[in-house]
Amino acid sequence: MDEENQIQTAPVEQETPVAEPVAEEVIEDQDDDSLPFPRARVVRIIKSEIGNSKQLRSEVKDAINLWLGNLLKRVAREMGDTQFGSVGLADFNRATKPYDMIADIVKDQERIMLACQKMGADADHINRELARFFNVLKGEQ
């Protein structure tokens, strides 16, 4: 039994693993107080649209965050121009309507450009027909 007690009471020497210095990873998506929105959320939204196969540069993350903040300020100023004591959904819709209409304006531009090209072709055709008609009247065929 003495041997058992000696084994139990004998200090056990264990090798403690030496902690190797690990390079701290820089977390790209830390929130920055100078940015209007949480950087991680903005990056998550962008990556959901462009995919994870592309790397997003830090300056792009900051630039789009600042741009979104400025856009929000413009919309807020426009909503603040309401004549009522509170800002309602109608004020929000009025303030965001120009931004919602951009896609429609681009489609309208394409449609108008095609219509102008068709009118130009029609005008050229009419011009040729009139020239031929007057040449026949003058006898110049």
Indicate the structural class: mainly alpha
Largest sheet: none
Mean pLDDT across every amino acid position = 82
**SSE pattern:** HHHHH
Stretches where pLDDT is under 50 for at least 5 consecutive residues are 21-27
The percentage of residues in β strands lies in under 5%
Number of strands: 0
User: What is the C-alpha radius of gyration, as a whole number of Å?
Assistant: 36 Å
Distance between the termini: 134 Å
Mass-distribution shape: elongated
Number of helices: 5
Please, how many domains? 2
Approximately how much helix is present in the residues?
A: 55-70%
Structure in words:
- The protein is mainly α and 141 residues long.
- It has helices at residues 2-9, 39-50, 58-80, 89-100, 102-138.
- It is 65% helix and 0% strand.
- It is elongated.
- Residues 21-27 have low confidence and may be disordered.
In short:
By secondary structure, the chain is an all-alpha fold.
Entry keywords:
single chain; 141 residues; mainly alpha; 5 helices
What is the strand and helix layout of this fold?
Elements: H1 2-9, H2 39-50, H3 58-80, H4 89-100, H5 102-138
Helix pairs in contact: 3-4
